[in-house]
């Protein structure tokens, strides 16, 4: 059952593209364009992972699905891409990465991505997700969110998985040197979860099952802690008020605009109208709006 879908980043992209129309430096332009690409790439990776998650679990009454959960607790932030919660309170914390060109994991556990013919080191997504789980665990505990049975709070069990594109190439070390089983392709999520559910044959498994209503209410409580981030993009990229002038405004020196359509116009267009006061009643109009007046 899907409790929350991903928040749209379209508004952020629109704001960033607006910044590109300003009188900014080449370095600011490069950083903003890179930010737009990063958002779009991340969006694609999360959409791809969400497709497989929703396909297998979106309509199930035994699973609660939460996409894009951002929580703040004790001065720390966790941006969780996907959460899966089942009726025995196994919580899968899933981080999606769009390593479209390939991923290499070294025997020592370092992560490298392939880009333009070379491998570049990146922070470990496994460790990143561990920090997300730690913040989530503390938030659940400190706010007493877990349901109780016989007066005792149930204990959740967390699973850490990194989902990457099914088309990505993964170069893994020998598992004896570094276990990479937490790195899976998004289309293999159901297989990974089923491997963890082998304990269903245990008689105690039945006793630990909670109702659909119980896990639904728990998931709803979690979503209430979602705090979408509000970014001042101009501030982030050091864009001053003096720079907040579009190319069109700079071209017209931001002095004249059409009295009818409010479009910025050139000084030449404005002077033409003022030199023909009888026709334009002393107001300035753009070339297109000028044509709406009868010539005299």
What does this entry show, briefly?
38% of the residues lie in helices and 21% in strands. It has 296 residues and is α/β, with parallel strands linked by helices.
Radius of gyration: 27 Å
Largest sheet properties: 6 strands, mixed
**What oligomeric assembly is this protein in?**
single chain
Q: Estimate the global geometry from the Cα principal axes.
A: elongated
How would you state the average pLDDT, rounded? Answer: 88
Structural class: alpha/beta
Q: How many alpha or pi helices?
A: 11
C-alpha end-to-end distance: 70 Å
Range of strand content: 15-25%
Low-confidence stretches: none
The percentage helix is 25-40%
Please give a structural write-up.
- The chain has 296 residues and is of the alpha/beta class.
- 38% of the residues lie in helices and 21% in strands.
- A hairpin with a 5-residue loop joins β5 and β6 (111-115).
- α1 (10-20) runs antiparallel to α2 (26-57).
- The termini are far apart.
- The model has no long low-confidence stretch (mean pLDDT 88).
């Amino acid at each position: 059952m899907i409790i929350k879908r991903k928040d749209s980043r379209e508004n952020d992209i629109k704001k960033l593209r607006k910044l590109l129309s300003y009188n900014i430096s080449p370095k600011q332009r490069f950083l903003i364009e890179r930010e737009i690409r990063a958002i779009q790439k991340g969006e694609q990776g999360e959409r791809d992972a969400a497709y497989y998650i929703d396909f297998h679990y979106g309509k199930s009454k035994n699973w609660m699905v939460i996409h894009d959960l951002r929580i703040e607790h004790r001065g720390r932030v966790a941006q969780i891409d996907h959460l899966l919660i089942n009726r025995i309170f196994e919580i899968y914390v899933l981080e999606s990465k769009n390593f479209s060109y390939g991923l290499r994991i070294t025997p020592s556990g370092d992560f490298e991505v392939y880009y333009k013919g070379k491998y570049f080191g990146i922070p470990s997504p496994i460790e990143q997700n561990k920090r997300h789980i730690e913040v989530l665990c503390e938030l659940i505990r400190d706010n007493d969110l877990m349901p109780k049975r016989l007066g005792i709070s149930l204990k959740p069990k967390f699973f850490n998985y990194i989902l990457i594109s099914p088309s990505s190439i993964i170069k893994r070390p020998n598992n004896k040197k570094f276990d990479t089983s937490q790195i899976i392709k998004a289309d293999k999520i159901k297989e990974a979860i089923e491997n963890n559910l082998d304990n269903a044959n245990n008689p105690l498994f039945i006793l630990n099952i909670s109702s659909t209503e119980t896990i639904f209410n728990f998931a709803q409580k979690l979503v209430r802690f979602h705090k979408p981030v509000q970014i001042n993009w101009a501030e982030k990229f050091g864009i001053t008020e003096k720079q907040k002038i579009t190319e069109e405004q700079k071209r017209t020196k931001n002095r004249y605009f059409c009295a009818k359509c409010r479009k910025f116009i050139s000084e030449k267009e404005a002077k033409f109208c003022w030199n023909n006061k009888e026709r334009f009643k002393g107001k300035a109009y753009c070339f297109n709006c000028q044509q709406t007046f009868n010539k005299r």
